[in-house]
Amino acid sequence: MVEDIAAPIKNALVGGPFGSNLVSRDYVSLGVPVIRGQNMSSRWVEGDFAFVSEKKAAQLSPNTARPGDLIFTQRGTLGQVAIVPQQPFDHYIVSQSQMKLTVDSQQTDALFLYYFFSSEEQQDYVRRNAVQTGVPHTNLEHLRRTPLLLPPLPEQRAIAAILGALDDKIELNRTMNQRLEQMAQALFKSWFVDFDPVHANRNGEAMPGLAREVQALFPSAFEDSALGEIPQGWQIEPLDRIAHFLNGLALQKFPAIDDYLPVIKIAELRKGVTESSGKASPNIEAKYIVDDGDILFSWSGSLEVVVWCGGRGALNQHLFKVTSAQYPRWFYYLWTKEHLPEFQSIAAGKATTMGHIQRHHLTAATTRVPPPHVLKSMTNIIEPLLMHIVNNNIASRTLAATRDALLPKLLSGEVRVREVEKMIEEIM
User: Parallel, antiparallel, or unpaired: how do β-strands 98-101 and 70-73 relate?
Assistant: First the structure.
């Protein structure tokens, strides 16, 4: 049982503080981070933390978590588990909805145990044994008495190393994509919002970090427009003139058969396709089918613009599939993202209905369009960044599927570590 592999120290296996011992008024702007459910969406405890003072943390010392500890959700998203990372904090406080386990490192590898509790079998165990009174939840006694069948410690470490390597690569791809996205947006802002190269040309200056031939694509003067000055030779166009915004279908429930398309709703934009995703007929009109690399824009609820990389699916209502027969993908993607804060503000003002925008808002949103030959040269610079993002996301999806397929087989001993190590080397 879990209690048997807890470290032989005080408070190795504890729940969060009693409700009144930690309340919102205890939070401060900086101090000791508090681990809540929103900090447990990945392998590591991370994200935006609430903080308490060192004095308050000292009062809650039994509820302290340190690097290497495992954190479990008690109420909320049942089955959530994450590891406290080595950085950037050296201690945390566990919230009322979480539980903490410090493992005995002489018996158990913490990373292995994370994967053990992440397995579908163990997730099912948590759900089956949840307390159903009120909001479904588990408790410290259930965690303490959770049965474990663990391989020898060296094998635990080997299994954790294999699965960890896959997750490390996924994380590397995610970090790389953040940088690529930042690069694309920085170029876009410099070229289409601030007009930095035009200002530099007008002043006879070279722009640092910008190739001379790229800077030469931009004019050295501005001209008046309805929106003020724009680069000479450029045009103003409505957002819905440079792209087509196709609204999805009101998809009905589809019989559970083998041949289907997963329904892509707003939830899938964040989490990807899951077992709970709806199913649609594969025979819907081709224009409503979404493929990797398509631009999707949720126009109601939580407004987001994403480059979809979750595999083929069916476009649901409340989502736009954004395409263009004339302009490159990066161009209408970044212009839509440029207007996103404005659209979100409009949606937030819909006090009596679910926040949304309407098509006339797309028409009112303006873009600056350079001459075709300039746009073509820009495409050679920015589109590869977007393509790299897509390829990284598809690779990560494959890595995650490999990890999920290997996890139960490695835990059960169906496949051995040596059989898997070579395969992992090849796909990495």
Answer: antiparallel
55 secondary structure, DSSP code = H
Which residues are 27's β-sheet partners? 52
Neighbours of 299 (CB within 10 A): 24
Q: What phi, psi does 105 have (nearest 5°)? A: -65, -10
pTM of the model: 0.86
State which H helix or E strand residue 289 sits in: strand 289-290
By the 8 A CB rule, do 310 and 268 touch?
yes
C-alpha to C-alpha distances, 390 to 281, 295, 303, nearest whole angstrom: 26, 11, 21
Contacts of residue 130, defined as CB under 8 A and 6 or more positions apart, other chains included, come to 78, 136, 137, 138
Closest CA to 184 of 371, 390, 372: 390
Alpha-carbon distance values, 285 to 257, 319, 345 (Å):
19, 16, 33
Q: Residues 299, 303, 307, 310: is their CA dihedral positive or negative?
A: negative
The whole-angstrom distance between residue 361's C-alpha and the CA centroid of its chain comes to: 27
What does the pLDDT read at residue 428? 67
What is the rounded CA–CA span in Å between residue 285 and residue 266?
20
Contact 420, 162 (CB under 8 A): yes
Contact 43, 96 (CB under 8 A): no
Sign of CA dihedral 153, 156, 158, 161: negative
Burial of 213 (0-12, 13-18, 19+ CB in 10 A): exposed
The DSSP 8-state label assigned to residue 189 in this structure reads I
- Give the SS3 label for residue 355: coil
Length of the chain: 428
What pLDDT, on the 0 to 100 scale, is given for residue 353?
A: 65
Q: Are 424 and 166 in contact (CB under 8 A)?
A: yes
What are the beta bridge partners of residue 368? Answer: 236
244: tokens are 């087509």
pLDDT of residue 298: 95
Hey, which residues does 315 pair with through a beta bridge? Answer: 264
**396 close to 173: Cβ distance less than 8 angstroms:** yes
Model pLDDT, residue 251 = 84
What is the structure's pLDDT at 270?
86
Q: Report all structural domains of the chain as residue ranges with CATH numbers, in order of start.
A: 2-150 (3.90.220.20), 240-369 (3.90.220.20)
Average pLDDT of adjacent 10-residue blocks, the chain of 428 residues: 90 88 88 92 92 93 94 87 94 93 94 93 85 78 88 93 94 96 96 95 92 93 91 96 95 76 91 86 92 96 93 94 97 97 88 80 96 94 96 94 91 83 74
Phi-psi region of 47 (alpha: psi -120 to 50; beta: other; left: phi over 0): left
